[in-house]
């Protein structure tokens, strides 16, 4: 243990928090949480016992040269912070969900006048209800289609004079134009939808049957018929769901399969029926036991999961102490979504974990393990097929362009401007046919070309020369192929820069109109067949360069537009403009800011002027 770590260990408090281990270069090795920071962190450096359990931990400890820590108010806050740090920093020794950015949550915007339903990748809105996570966009879209079939819901956020599109096709009850009241919509549509997503489907069925009887008794046969159709659709869906238990049991069943990476299979059982299946792939798990993997995974899963059971079935015993900090009845934190009011697990509020040894529960566990293995193998097969497809596209591109080597690194360039205003350039990089976003670069064009009338004039050729000249003055990696978005003119500008810098790099231009490929030494363009995998790759790269350039251009244009408006407001100078952009981060967020937030920076009078002007 070096002096830096030794000194910091002495100052660690006996409070909940998050600790970060770093190596000699300052790179993050591991992020962990603790109920008592001093005890937990010190345990890593004891000569015997503690966390010296295996070669993986020992290797990590040998690399620790520094540590940071953050004190939290309670265990749940430390778990939230740990989860955020792991996602942001991607530490070398932490168990990490593969592609967790792709997980989706179904969101109900309760605060809207008409509650809207959609999906998002992050839980951000404190006032909304979230359901998930879903590991597949197909699964969440199928769920939304099923929900709309059983419970028609509105697409609008506010009541107006006109019905929404879905009303015309019989998929909205008409709340959008006042056919039914907002209270009726919330009670008879949104509330059952939330019950449905939580898995309480038999309760919904009873409520619908009761409503149908009431409408029939009062001779409101049209409304009774609509509810009858809902009951029929719900019953058909329930019949298709696999019955696991004859009793109404709520369980989450986790199974695990370990290979090069680990796959965890989850069966979600509500009211005795399997309502959902998810698979999670975890990395950095090679030398960990199933118990250690689950101890890392479960608290982070239940931190974001909306649907909590009364029991969890696991294949092995684990230390479930960390899960006690994720109880659903803990509302003392700033957690950004509403949890179920039921305490998680047993009557004392603790999680109830069952390790099956026989019967249906053990069969479920084994079935889940088989599912996890098959899912992992399928993902591997998909990955191999994708790699083969990308390699074939690069080989075909090498052949049709007669390149000396496989074009592993392809750089593409595009210009975006409107009549010379806010001109920008983009450089995007594909590394063996995959986007390498860490190497993307954007250029604010410095030169200005002016017309005879003194107005800005677009000169894409000059802009392209400037961008490439600036690019090749940097010591970035040398490309195997350069792709210019444009025809002969743009290509000639780029070639002149290469000659000026004495560079011999293959370069082509791809024109949009006919998808012609122009080469410097050839008079006529190359035309590839429409189904060419090489052409698909070039189009994808060209379109990505265009997207990246347009995005940057819009950002600058929006900033310029806002600045020009602010310039017209008396009392707003350069200092104030800079403060506003630093505080809110973007022009759009300045426009969306409340008067209260603006007043905190520029005062109430100026804040009111800004809101009136934007």
Automatic annotation (TrEMBL):
Subcellular location: Cytoplasm
Keywords, in A-Z order: Cytoplasm, DNA damage, DNA excision, DNA repair, Excision nuclease, SOS response
Residue span(s) of domain UvrC family homology region profile: 256-498
Iron keyword on record: no
Pfam family for this entry, one: UVR
Sequence ranges assigned to domain GIY-YIG in this UniProt record: 14-95
Single GO term (MF): DNA binding
A cellular component annotation (GO) from this entry: cytoplasm
Biological process annotations from GO: nucleotide-excision repair; SOS response
Family, similarity comment: Belongs to the UvrC family.
Biological role stated in the UniProt entry: The UvrABC repair system catalyzes the recognition and processing of DNA lesions. UvrC both incises the 5' and 3' sides of the lesion. The N-terminal half is responsible for the 3' incision and the C-terminal half is responsible for the 5' incision.
HAMAP family reported for this sequence: UvrC
Assembly behavior: Interacts with UvrB in an incision complex.
Protein name (record): UvrABC system protein C
């Amino acid at each position: 243990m070096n002096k830096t770590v030794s000194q910091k260990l002495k100052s660690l408090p006996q409070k909940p928090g998050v600790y970060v281990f770093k190596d000699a270069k300052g790179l993050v090795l591991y992020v962990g949480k603790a109920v008592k920071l001093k005890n937990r962190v010190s345990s890593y450096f004891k000569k015997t016992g503690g966390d010296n359990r295996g070669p993986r931990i020992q290797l990590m400890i040998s690399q620790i040269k520094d540590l940071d820590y953050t004190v939290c108010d309670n265990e749940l806050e430390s778990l939230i912070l740990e989860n955020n740090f792991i996602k942001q920093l991607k530490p070398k020794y932490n168990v990490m969900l593969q592609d967790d950015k792709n997980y989706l949550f179904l969101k109900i915007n309760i605060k809207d006048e008409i509650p809207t339903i959609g999906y998002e990748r992050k839980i951000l809105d404190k006032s909304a209800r979230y359901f998930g996570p879903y590991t597949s966009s197909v699964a969440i879209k199928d769920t939304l289609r099923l929900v709309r079939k059983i419970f028609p819901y509105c697409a609008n956020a506010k009541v107006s004079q006109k019905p929404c599109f879905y009303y015309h096709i019989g998929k909205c009850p008409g709340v959008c134009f006042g056919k039914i009241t907002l209270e009726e919509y919330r009670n008879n549509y949104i509330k059952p939808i939330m019950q449905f997503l939580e898995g309480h489907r038999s309760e919904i069925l009873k409520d619908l049957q009761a409503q149908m009887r009431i409408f029939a008794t009062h001779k409101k046969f049209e409304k009774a018929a609509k509810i009858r159709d809902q009951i029929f659709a719900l019953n058909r869906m329930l019949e298709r769901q696999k019955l696991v238990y004859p009793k109404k049991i709520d369980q989450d069943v986790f199974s695990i399969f370990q290979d090069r990476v680990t796959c965890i299979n989850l069966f979600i059982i509500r009211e005795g029926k399997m309502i959902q299946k998810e698979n999670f792939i975890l990395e950095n798990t090679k030398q960990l036991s199933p118990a250690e993997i689950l101890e890392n995974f479960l608290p982070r899963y239940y931190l974001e999961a909306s649907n909590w059971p009364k029991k969890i079935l696991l294949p092995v015993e684990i230390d479930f102490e960390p899960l006690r900090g994720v109880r659903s009845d803990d509302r003392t934190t700033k957690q950004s979504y509403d949890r179920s009011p039921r305490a998680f697990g047993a009557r004392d509020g603790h999680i109830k974990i069952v390790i099956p040894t026989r019967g249906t529960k053990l069969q479920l566990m084994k079935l889940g393990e088989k599912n996890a293995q098959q899912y992992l193998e399928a993902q591997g097969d998909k990955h191999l097929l994708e790699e083969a497809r990308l390699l074939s596209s690069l080989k075909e591109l090498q052949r049709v362009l007669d390149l000396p080597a496989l074009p592993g690194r392809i750089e593409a360039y595009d210009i975006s401007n409107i009549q010379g205003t806010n001109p920008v350039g983009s450089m995007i990089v594909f590394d063996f046919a995959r986007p390498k976003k860490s190497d993307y670069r954007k250029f604010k064009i410095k030169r200005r070309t002016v017309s005879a009338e003194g107005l800005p004039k677009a000169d894409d050729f000059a802009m392209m020369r400037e961008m490439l000249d600036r690019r090749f003055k940097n010591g970035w990696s040398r490309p195997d192929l350069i792709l210019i978005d444009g025809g002969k003119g743009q290509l000639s500008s780029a070639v002149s820069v290469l000659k000026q810098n004495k560079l011999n790099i293959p370069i082509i231009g791809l024109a949009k109109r006919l998808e012609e490929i122009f080469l410097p030494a050839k008079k006529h363009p190359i035309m590839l067949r429409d189904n060419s995998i090489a052409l698909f790759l070039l189009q994808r790269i060209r379109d990505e360069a265009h997207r990246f350039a347009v995005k940057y251009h819009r950002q600058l244009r929006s900033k310029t537009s806002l600045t020009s408006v602010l310039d017209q407001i008396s009392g707003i100078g350069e200092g104030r403009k800079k403060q506003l952009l630093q505080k809110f981060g973007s022009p759009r967020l300045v426009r969306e800011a409340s008067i209260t937030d603006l007043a905190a920076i520029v005062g109430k009078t100026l804040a009111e002027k800004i809101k009136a002007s934007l």
